[in-house]
Write a structure and sequence with these properties.
- It is built from 13 helices and 20 strands.
- With 425 residues, the protein is an alpha/beta fold.
- A hairpin with a 6-residue loop joins strand 15 and strand 16.
- The radius of gyration is 24 Å and the shape is globular.
- The structure holds adenosine-5'-diphosphate, aspartic acid and magnesium ion.
- Magnesium ion binds next to loops.
Amino acid sequence: MALIVQKYGGTSVGDTERMKNVARRCIAAQKAGHDVVVVVSAMSGETNRLLKLVAQITDRPDEREQDVVVATGEQVSIGLVSMAIHAQGGKAVSFLGHQVRIVTDSTFSKARIKSIDAEPIRAALKQGKIVVVAGFQGVDETGSVTTLGRGGSDTTGVALAAALKADACEIYTDVDGVYTTDPNVCPAAKKLDRITYEEMLELASLGAKVLQIRSVEFAMKYKVPLWVKSSFTEDPGTLVCEEDASMEDVLVRGVAYDRNEAKITVVGVPDQPGAAAKLFGALDAKHIVVDLIVQNLSRDGRTDVTFTVAKSDFAKAHEVVKQAAQDVGATGVEVDDTIAKVSIVGVGMRNHSGVAARMFQTLSQEGINIQLISTSEIKTSCVIHTKYTELAVRALHTAFGLDAPPPVTATPTVSEVDALQGQKA
Ligand code: ADP
Ligand code: ASP
Ligand code: MG
């Protein structure tokens, strides 16, 4: 008998029929002899709908109140899924984030989990119940509702699995595993049977939204066996796991893209100690996370500093930087939100040279200009114009030998050919 945490995403609970399907799957897992904890997201589109309502009231929402609003989507889902389990003869109880004391810090809209009280869940499991927990939400030390960032239900699932020392965490979504790249963008993408925590961490942080980055961090830290599966098929899915020797044979495991960043350039920054510290210190003070940073060669005692931030922080970052640029005596600020970052990831890159060069060549053959470059041990990223995203992803996928073989069309037998010719005649 095992303890399994299953997380179902927005599409998997997108309507009441799909919720009934989730209920069937949970009951089947329990009947197979397991203790089952289910984490559910808001119904697909619901979180966006709630954010739109907020935007209709104000373009500068109070962050605490915004979380009060967007956390409600998951409440509807847990109640309905619990009732769907009851309707099929099962026993279930729902819990909101605060009811299982998912305590987070107070960084509204991207809060981090600090602790979880597993006791109420254990008690309900002992009574033979399937425990249905709201994803995405927590509560801070003062009792305010917080949310964990887009895709945060994945993190609720893995964090609960870690807190309960579950035997497995299964993330059910609308694709049947982790692919070499987004299968909705690249039809030649291949499903992976296994991927290392490290590679998944890079892919997630570089835009592959199939798992939220924090969920992979938790899984890696607490060694949670993490599966990504489809809620619509019986495919075994992808296991995210520790690296073993054979996994280094693959040079590039996957390609990711991210269209959710924007680029800011501070022009004519005086090239003297403290300027960068002031610029980025001002951003940090507003909890704005900066991704790529490039500083150009200094000319006449001045330099340009370019960096990227999440689009959701773009307006706030622009405002902060305009002020900070003035404070450090820079000559101006330029912004561009029509960028995309494409990346290749693979633990095999550690031991091979020439991978980045092949990436640049591939992009150049497609006539795609590279604006910024960033590398680490197991990834290379390029910032390009957003209009080339799909083209870049597909070209890189082909260039690094990741394309699935074309579907085999059976060659007709001689008698079938005769029969076909007979039909035509
Ligand atoms: P859920 O609502 O179940 O959390 P998401 O939309 O957050 O689902 O994540 C699943 C989506 O992630 C897929 O539909 C796919 O478009 C996208 N995706 C991006 N990169 C990958 C990848 N490498 N493998 C699988 N899916 C990916
Ligand atoms: N409902 C939240 C979102 O749409 C959390 C999640 O689905 O994981 O981002
Ligand atoms: Mg998701």
